[in-house]
Design brief:
Rossmann fold, Glycosyltransferase involved in cell wall biosynthesis, six-stranded parallel beta sheet, 14 helices
Length: about 375
């Protein structure tokens, strides 16, 4: 079911929603750009997490206090909407949370961002968590038709498909669009063709070491090509395991001048937008996964995306695909995707006007969903 099929009931009250977590950029962008007058949605702020004061603003919700059944038993809300943050929760704890919400006569909504957790080495725990949440939810939301089909296949449930909203602020999107347009009018690229491989802190879902030889070969064949690899400091400082192996390979490639290696701590939002704007294409090195906020940020600033065939990235947005799963990797498909990106640059950004319109549609779809649930309870 898509957002176009959702009824638009006229709610006559403000609906209070406990969104987990409220501070995440995805959740913040489920609301209209301009706050409406009542009636509408009022999202509860994340309860403070002890010791989180020094974190970035969008990380101060971790671990979510709202997942504590004691909080769910006492807080004032109409709808409990779970998105992220239950990675380490025991399924029995989630079952207790569900019983608490249901026992109060409140509605539970679950947005299935991940059908395979990118932080878990194997899928067993996350599958058990989903086996609690998906059957129990009063309503399910997901981001793509592919994910909705998997939910239908695995649990016999129908999920509302609502696309991922923008990630980058509108002002930064406009600035990136103006920069790309200036380059287009100049007729020639203002800089080298830059391919980005961002390994972050090396999530379990990532396998950049597997891709690196192919990317080096593909980018080397492009006149003026540059392969930029960004790694967090914790990866490069590792002394054992996958991180240490990757750090060694990256240092050797940098020493041979095959890559431009950039090592840093977590980027601020502004630093991240600057980095993405400086790329022509970003390669997602995932061997499993479902959806990607990184992909959406690239779209916002007009950076093309090369995405693996695992998950539903190609359903999420236009990408150049290459074959990569836990069990399979086709170097030729990755090499062709790089050259396809080079032939087709610059990518076309979604644009702030379209993103603003989309966000209003997403906000209306969520309000309609919440109102339906509250009316049904009444």
């Amino acid at each position: 079911m898509s957002i176009a099929e959702v009824a638009r009931p006229q709610s006559h009250r403000t609906i209070t929603v406990a969104s987990v977590p409220a501070g995440h950029v995805y959740v913040r962008h489920l609301d209209p750009v301009e706050p409406p007058g009542p009636p509408g949605v009022r999202r509860l702020p994340d309860p403070p997490v002890p010791g989180s004061e020094d974190r970035a603003a969008d990380q101060r919700w971790w671990p979510p206090v709202m997942l504590d059944p004691r909080w769910a038993a006492e807080a004032d809300y109409d709808v409990f909407h779970l998105h992220f943050g239950f990675d380490a929760r025991d399924p029995e704890d989630l079952a207790e949370l569900v019983r608490t919400i249901q026992g109060r006569g409140k509605s539970l909504v679950y947005t299935a961002h991940d059908l395979r957790n990118p932080h878990h080495r194997d899928r067993e725990l996350h599958d058990r968590q989903l086996d609690v949440l998906v059957p129990a939810a009063d309503a399910l939301v997901t981001l793509t038709t592919g994910a909705a089909a998997e939910i239908e296949r695995r649990w016999g449930r129908t999920a509302l498909v609502v696309p991922h909203p923008h990630v980058v602020p509108f002002a930064r999107m406009r600035a990136a669009q103006a920069m790309r347009e200036a380059q287009r009018r100049a007729g020639t690229p203002a800089r080298a063709f830059r391919v980005g491989l961002h390994v972050k802190s090396l999530r379990e879902s990532m396998d950049p070491e597997r891709l690196l030889p192919t990317l080096i070969r593909a980018v080397d064949a492009i006149p003026g090509g540059e392969l930029v690899v960004n790694a967090h400091t914790d990866v490069m400082a590792a002394t054992e395991g996958r991180r240490a192996s990757l750090a060694r390979v990256l240092r050797e490639a940098a020493a041979r001048e095959q890559i431009t290696l950039q090592v840093h701590d977590y980027y601020s939002d502004d630093e991240l937008w600057d980095y993405l704007c400086g790329l022509d294409v970003s390669v997602l090195p995932y061997r499993f996964g479902t959806h990607s906020g990184w992909l959406e940020a690239c779209r916002d600033v007009g950076t093309a995306v090369i995405a693996p065939t695992c998950g539903y990235y190609a359903d999420q947005a236009p990408v150049m695909s290459y074959t990569h799963t836990e069990d399979d990797f086709d170097p030729a498909s990755l090499e062709e995707a790089v050259h396809q990106a080079h032939r087709g640059r610059p990518a076309t950004p979604v644009g702030p006007v379209a993103r603003r319109r989309q966000r209003e549609e997403i906000a209306a779809a969520h309000l309609a969903l919440y109102a339906d649930l509250v009316d049904a309870r009444s």
